[in-house]
Amino acid sequence: MNLKYYVDLDARKGPGCYDSEEVNFLMSRMLRGTHMAIIQECGETSSNQYAIAIAFPLSCDKGHGGLLRIFSGDDKVLGRLLRHPNIHRYVRDLDAAVLEVPSIERFAIFSRNRLADRFSPSARRRADHRLKVYGFTTPTGKKKQPGFAIASQSQSNGEAFLFRIQRLDLSAKPGPEGVGFNAYGLSKSAAVPMF
Predict the structure, then answer these.
(1) Mean pLDDT of 6-19
(2) Of 1, 83, 85, 178, whose CB neighbour count within 10 A is largest?
(3) Which pairing describes strands 107-112 and 148-153: parallel, antiparallel, or unpaired?
């Protein structure tokens, strides 16, 4: 998919100063609003792929950086997305404009780290207990999961969860063309421009 246009949604922007908790809260709401807008506005293809991609250009292992960049091959799709009520509800100062992606040579893949989300803490404790009962040793200390997490809440059941996202930086854009993105704008194989 050729991503020609983008828009930046900045959780750090607007009147006043924000502390890190407020930026995290806004990023969580922006991600949820973007997800809902993608589902309702963009329409999926036959293979459950969408025409919208997201990136966190300021992200590192410590966090998301407060900037959500949304890409599409069509500026009209991004325009509809920006006018969607779920985007306006969560973005305080929406003066975002649809811009053309500059000529770049760096790319990254943003994907969901589902392995880290697979088990709840109580399920992990029960599993560790059972392993100890049968004489197996369990690793000590917490294993650091790659990427960063954004707190979110399920729309269907209201359950809170951590949405873990991994970033893989690439030196060249990987193929194949035509690979789309999921309903969160993430993909395991499709890259987005980084600038």
Answers:
(1) 70
(2) 1
(3) unpaired
